[in-house]
Design a protein that fits this description.
- This protein is mainly α and about 240 residues long.
- The chain contains 8 helices and 5 strands.
- The chain has one domain.
- It has a 3-stranded parallel beta sheet, with helices on one face.
- The chain is globular.
- The C terminus is likely disordered.
């Protein structure tokens, strides 16, 4: 099972938030770092939905729930957040399974654009610090060289091939149709940690809460509105949003 940002299942974001806040009397530690990383399943659902209006509504519903999570945590006292964007769902087996790789990539780009605009609005309105990580670009850079880490299959679900005796988790990038294997997760975790340390030591993060938005570095901490991701069309850039 995979969690949605928008949904009513026990694993979805609203339930996760309630499970954290309710036992704490809706109080959030103001010195803690709150990690918000969700939306992949919402993107998958939006990519499968062929009605464009409904598809975009699914993305917006996910973003709206993420905003509620930020605001509820902030109301309880939270001030520091780590909110990476989403990986390119177009490379996942689930997208290829439905023949929707290109569409899933487009929906990921759209969701990530909405995500970044939300973060900028929240920084301005709530006076909070949000650290960033560009998962989309990180995975796009990682997958062409996964063979360097002993991974020979970056297209199939290892679990799906297990009945045939072809699933070696050390050689697969994906555990199932959406989730990466432990080896890929370890690479992601290391990159996340490095990016966070970089931002914590940067004065930019204390200057109008512009973490991950300034500078010319190729670092994955920077979410640029000028330098597009591979496959990010010009009309997807954050032009006109200088907050």
């Amino acid at each position: 099972m995979h969690a949605n940002a928008w949904g009513d299942k026990p694993i979805d974001l609203p339930a996760q938030l309630a499970a954290y806040l309710e036992p704490r009397n809706y109080e959030a530690n103001p010195t803690a770092l709150y990690f918000i990383f969700i939306g992949a399943n919402d993107i998958v659902t939006a990519a499968i939905e062929q009605d464009e209006v409904l598809s975009d509504e699914l993305l917006q519903n996910g973003i709206d729930e993420v905003e509620k999570a930020f605001r509820n945590l902030h109301a309880g006292g939270a001030r520091y957040f780590y909110a990476p964007n989403n990986v390119n769902i177009g490379v996942a087996p689930v997208a290829k399974q439905f023949g929707l790789s290109e569409r899933a990539t487009e929906k990921t780009i759209k969701f990530n654009r909405m995500w970044e605009l939300l973060l900028r609005r929240l920084e301005r309105k709530l006076d909070i610090t949000i650290y960033r990580f560009d998962f989309f670009r990180f995975v796009d850079d990682l997958f062409p060289i996964v063979d360097k880490f002993g991974i020979t299959n970056s297209t199939d679900s290892c679990l799906a091939l297990a009945p045939q005796g072809l699933c070696d988790l050390e050689e697969f990038a994906f555990f199932d149709e959406l989730l990466p294997t432990a080896k890929i997760h370890a690479l992601m975790g290391n990159a996340l940690s490095t990016a966070l340390i970089e931002q914590l030591s940067s004065p930019i993060c204390n200057d109008r809460h512009h973490c991950g938005r300034l500078g010319s570095s190729i670092s994955y901490t920077f979410i640029s509105k000028q330098r597009p991701h591979p496959g990010l069309h010009k009309d997807n850039l954050l032009e006109g949003h200088n907050d």
